[in-house]
Amino acid sequence: MGEGRLTTQIWQSRRWRRRLVLSTIVALLVPLVFLAVHYSNPGDPGNANGPEVPDYVQPKASPFTPAEQHQVSQTLKQFISGAVAGENPAQGWNATAPSLRQGTTRKEWIHGEMPVVPYPAANRGLGTWSFVQYSYTDTVGLEVFVFPKPSSGYSAMTADAELVKQRDGRWLVDYWMPKRFHGPPALSASQLKKAHKDKSARSKSKRREAAEAEEQPYEPPRQSRAWLALPIALLSLVIIVPLAVVLVYWIQNRRATRAYAESSRT
User: Fold this and answer.
1) How many domains does the chain have?
2) 142, 3, 7: which is closest to 75 by C-alpha?
3) What angle do CA 57, 59, 65 make, to 5 degrees?
4) Cα of 143 vs its chain's centroid, Å
5) 3-class SS string, 48-114
6) What's 97's domain CATH number?
7) pLDDT by residue (tens digit) across 57-112?
8) Could you read off the pLDDT of 71-85 as tens digits, one per residue?
């Protein structure tokens, strides 16, 4: 009986309940911490930077010789006119490295299914580049400037190109990606005339709208009176509610007086 009373007193005591909860938490955490520390793997101290990665070898820079420049220029000319402009896909295929045409058969390429962004390149300046981005022993990266055909509606374009030297000594295009467009689009005389006419019409329309706006007198915006609804409603309640109360009491008094008069007669 004494033990039951002691147990009841312990559970009724806030301090003892707090001690029991803390003891339970400590009893659960200590074994977990021990197991985590005991079975954790600190890793290999000899491999502190993560998994092994094959050593990257920086390609050796190499001068871009005049002979290589001539070969690269001819390859670019064939690639741009044949594949990019689409004038001779077979010629473009022959100027493309296997890595660029990977996943595409020669038949598909010749029928226009090639992984090259089309562009109506003009013959002007074909095979030239803006500057050399990098030059290694068997690889060269160029920024190529391409002019559009007249009346094509396209602007001049720069593209990133990479060419790789094959075992047989040929330079082939390994990478081609348009980067940005420059200047106005190439338009024909009729297109230029139409564009100028449209521009003049838009200018006249804007001037006419401006003149009409100036002719109309300025009228300040009218303020909405909707905001008066709330104060009017509140004022009405202040007046109507007392009147309604007075009216109710007056009616009740009249009825009481009438009832009293009738009861006195009888």
Assistant:
1) 1
2) 142
3) 170
4) 27
5) CCCCCCCCCCCCCECCCCHHHHHHHHHHHHHHHHHHHCCCCHHHHHHCECCCCCCCCCHHHHHCCCC
6) 3.10.450
7) 777 889 999 999 999 999 999 999 999 999 999 999 999 999 999 999 999 999 98
8) 999 999 999 999 999
